[in-house]
Amino acid sequence: MVMIRLARVGARKQPYYRIVVIEKDRARNGRSIEVVGTYNPRTNPASVVLKRERIDYWRGVGAQFSPIVAKLVAKAPVAEPETAPTGSPTPEPAPVPAPDSTADTAAV
């Protein structure tokens, strides 16, 4: 079974976690299939960065959340999809002048 759970990567007394997709029977920091986010509990408030598309994909193919990751995903704010600003349109690039053909014939 595939799980989405935390893998600790921080130094001693400085926890920092990766949210990984990993086989259930592997070690906590064993080889993971994919890293789908990070969690830093030392910031105020704790920072959570998630790749929502990849998490949705793995959930769709049967991956299970660990209890802590389920709470993190539920509490994490959903990022709004970035759209182009609706202000003024981007200006057209300036045209490149054509090379002068008379300069070639004068040099010969």
Structural class: alpha+beta
Portion in beta strands? 25-35%
Estimate the mean pLDDT confidence: 83
Rg over alpha carbons: 25 Å
Q: What's the tally of helices?
A: 3
What's the CATH topology label of the domain at 2-75?
S16 Ribosomal Protein, Chain: A
User: How do the strands of the widest beta sheet line up side by side?
Assistant: 4-3-2-1-5
Second rung of CATH, namely the architecture of the domain at 2-75: 2-Layer Sandwich
Describe the overall structure.
- With 108 residues, the protein is an alpha+beta fold.
- The chain has a domain at 2-75: S16 Ribosomal Protein, Chain: A (2-Layer Sandwich), CATH 3.30.1320.
- The chain has helices at 52-60, 67-75, 101-107; strands at 2-8, 17-23, 34-40, 47-50, 64-65.
- Strands 4-3-2-1-5 form a five-stranded mixed sheet.
- A hairpin with a 6-residue loop joins strand 3 and strand 4 (47-50).
- The termini are far apart.
- The model has no long low-confidence stretch (mean pLDDT 83).
